[in-house]
Amino acid sequence: ASLAGRTPAILQATMGVAERARRLQPENCDYVVEFAYQQSLAGDYQGAIQTYRTATQLDELNMSSLYGTIHCQLLDNQLEDAAQQLEFLNEISVSIEKSTDLVFLSALLAWKKNHDSDGSVKLLDEALELHLASLEGKKLSYQYYVDLNCELLLEIARLYLQHGGSEPRQSTEPVSPNITKTVKVLELVGRNVPGMLEAHLMLARSRFLAADMEGSVRGVTQCLRLEPTFADAHILMAQIYLYQGNNRMAAQSLEQAMSHNFQVRESTTYNIVQAKVHLQNGDNDEALKVLETAMAVPGVKHPLKEAEIAQALKRKKHLPQIVLHERVSLFLLLAEVHAKLGHVPEATKVIQDALNEFAGTAEEVRVTIANCELALNRGDVEGALGMLRAIPRESPHYLRAKMAMADIYLKNRNDKAMYASCYLELVEKYPDVQTYCMLGEAFMQIQEPERAISAFESALAQTPKDSALASKIGKALVMTHDYQKAVDYYETAVRSDPTQVHMQHDLAELYYKLKHYEHAERVLNTSLDRKNDSDDIMSMMMDVKALLLLAQVRKGANDPTGFADTQMRARTQQTVLLSKIRADPELLRQQKVLAADICYTLAQEYDIHKNYERALAFYNEALRHNDTHTKSMLALAKLYLARGETDQCQQLCVTLLRADPDKEEASMMLAELMFRKEHYETAIYHFQQLLERKPSHYVALAQLVQLLRRAGRLSEVPRYLRMAEKASPRAAMDAGLHFCKGLYSRYSNNPHEALRQLNMGRKDGEWGARCIYNMVEIYLNPDNETVWDEALSDGRPMDNSEAVKAAEKLLKEIRLHPKPVKHHILECYALMATKQKNDIEGALNKLVELANTDRDSVPVLLAMATAFTMLKQTPKARNQLKRVAKMQYNAEEADDFEKSWLLLADIHIQGGKFDLAQEMCKKCLKYNKSCAKAWEGMGQIMEREQSYRDAADHYEMAWKFENEASPSVGYRLAFNYLKAKRFVEAIDVCHKVMAAFPNYPKIRKDIMEKARASIRP
Predict the structure, then answer these.
(1) Cβ neighbour number for residue 60 with a 10 Å cutoff
(2) Mapping DSSP to helix (H, G, I), strand (E, B) and coil, where does residue 1007 land?
(3) Host H or E run for residue 416
(4) Exposure class string for 604-639: b at 16+ Cβ within 10 A, else e
(5) Which of 16, 268, 480, 503 could disulfide-link 326, Cβ–Cβ 3.0 to 4.6 Å?
(6) pLDDT of residue 795
(7) What is the pLDDT of residue 621?
């Protein structure tokens, strides 16, 4: 029964067994006591008291029956009777050894009757110490679980928790000692009884109060995994979401709690959280209604008297359990809502009532601080400070008051000196580890790491073996940028105590950040070579951490083989660790997430080196460890897409979007997939949905520009550009928007406007490199020609020396390290653009080196083919391009595939192989319907076959997608209109070409005059 967590079904069964034993041997006092104990677990305190008294009649010296009676009286609020009996027991216990039960009952009475927080905690400490001492040396067995007495431990933890505060601690505030003790007790219970829901929930609440949100979420998740309908766990999750500022999810968790248990509406915690949700959503009137309803509950405004409790019990009326800090929270929230609604007198009255009601309690300081906040809202900063100064140094609330005063100095007056002086005064009064740590954190808060170091060193002098404190000193030294001093400190600390593994890791991490890879590797190898218990879970976890850091060190040292080998060692160690912690579901889940990260990193490495089979295996392994590992799902979907396995890719994207409809990467990938399947409308729809929600999502906008271009709908882009401009008042300054505009102008054959827009974004950290690379490509090939001719369209020699210089200058602006392959390729194109044979051959040599690193790089093969073409070595160019033509299409290299196919088509056209050329052009148009060069190539083929009507249709599309800005395409379109006897259209095109390009006179003589002559009668 004590392991059942008060589960009604189990208690009913165990009570039946106990009742039967009692009937079989009615004179056996132990059986009667056991039955009474189970009655108390079921909440029947009156019945339990009667049964305990029966046991006392059977054996007056049975202490269990006496302790049980007092315990039930305390829980039933019969405080006077319990106090009298406890006083008697304490007097007779002077001559005998104290028991855990007696000390615990004294602690419970001190709190329930006198609200003596300090006295209660001291007695709890004594009770816990006695109980743990009684368990020492006992082996795991049936009797061990009896002696463990989980219910007693839970009650001790519950009482500690009441003294641990009601709100998560602030960054400068240390974790409450009572919370630390609560965690210790609950972890003991959790290890021995992993299925006890209340223990998991209380542990999660303790971590919430310690501001360990990650640990708290893990605890709540474990509760909900054991019992999805556990309403209290949903309420705590709502509190976590509120703390994180996620009001929508907080409201959703409250709804789930109420759907599972409608009675939670009467819970004080539920009402507090609901009011806070309304408050943060700006719905102050609703918050006021909730709080006024909660305040009307008996026991909130004033504690219930014994007569009221007795009367309620007679009527069998349910009395909700209301703890002190929840009552205070309701008062303070009500005051806050009144203040926000402008009801200043009402807010002042509520605070005054609270001050009167909670004077002398542990929560008094919270009310005083709330009163200060009310004064601050009125602009009375000095008045707020005056209230806090009035709290004397001898008061138990002095520490909290000084911390509140420090916050006011920092936030309201920006007075860092007075902020620090508040903590200095605390150190002067309480020169212990806790206050020195608070002082150190305060100095860190105001960016004074030197003084923080001094405070931490004073704390460390009192607890020399505290590795966490030593680590704080090291981190503070790093903040001062005195890296050599930080290194020396860490090295000294590690030498003086080689068992400080955390310090070794901090030192290695510092060396890694300083790029002293050899030293970092030395420290980590020392850590890994230490003698330790290979079965110790903590040691194994530290080894995995060291191996992962060592892998990063080797990667930084440009040792890819060492990186992969070390990462594999970490994976192997983590697999062994997982096999040893299967009995601890919470730790297992946490470590499985790390195992997934390790496999993901390995997969990424193999993916980069194009070992796709191994990458695929490790991505799948990551998902076996953690089926919601988003990064692995995205990377795997991307890999499937590259391999042409569209069904698997689509399945993963749909799974991701089902879990998170706002997952942008999955939406974009699904759009790309739909495009591959030639479902253009669906593909564009996914991007449109994303941009409707967030018009300034420039990554999606850039993708949509690419997609609309490839779908032949480039004319729709301006609408989305206008939406992005309207979405943000700072849009004109956004480099992402300038990049998207530049991209659109480039694809619209407006290189001058494209350069102007891209130039405005080239200094940006995020978009700068992409802007510069596009500018370089425009400078080197402004007309987007497939073959770099040596003359302009009108026959004049091309002088592009200024453009080449501009391109080279832009490339030097790129600060990326190491430089991407694209950068080296563009440098080669810049050399080729000079049209000098030596430069072209030099570029070709560089490209051959790049090809040796990656033989199947499409951009490298295209650049080599371009160089061979310029050197008049057409067969060699054709061989490179044929290799590209046989490769699997990859969306990331779409432009390079397209240019390769166009260059090969051009070579086929020159060789008279029109069917092969047509095949390449159609391939281009399959993936890019706006490809003007492909339409032009198709037109050339038709023209050479003297099919002028078809040629005119294809040139018409080329003219459209060149934005009617290419004189050569205009000339060919007009010529084929002339040949197809479409004279009026030919004349219209001639006018457009001559208007845009006055220096292009030959079209008048060759085409326009002939067309005019042909339409004259």
Answers:
(1) 10
(2) helix
(3) helix 416-429
(4) bbbbeeeeeeebbebbebbbebbeebebbbbbbbbb
(5) 268
(6) 40
(7) 93
